[in-house]
Write a structure and sequence with these properties.
single chain; mainly beta
Length: 71
């Protein structure tokens, strides 16, 4: 999920976006995708309306019995 999941940012400014990934139901392994940001600005180059940022998500198998660290 993204927060905020939509909005606008004025030229010369920035907006922080939080990205949350959920591994529920995924097998251990590496997952890759792109986070695509649509723009009507001049970056990365005039006429390019989508910036694709690579995302790598590593899901590890964790066999701990006590999730809070208590043993």
């Amino acid at each position: 999920s993204f927060a905020p999941d939509s909005g606008s940012t004025s030229g010369g400014t920035s907006t922080a976006v939080s990205v949350t990934l959920d591994s529920d139901g995924l097998a251990a392994g590496e997952y890759t995708t792109y986070l695509c940001i649509h723009s009507n600005g001049s970056q990365p180059a005039p006429g390019e309306s989508v910036v694709a940022l690579p995302v790598v998500f590593n899901v590890i198998e964790d066999n701990r019995i006590f999730w809070n660290g208590f043993e």
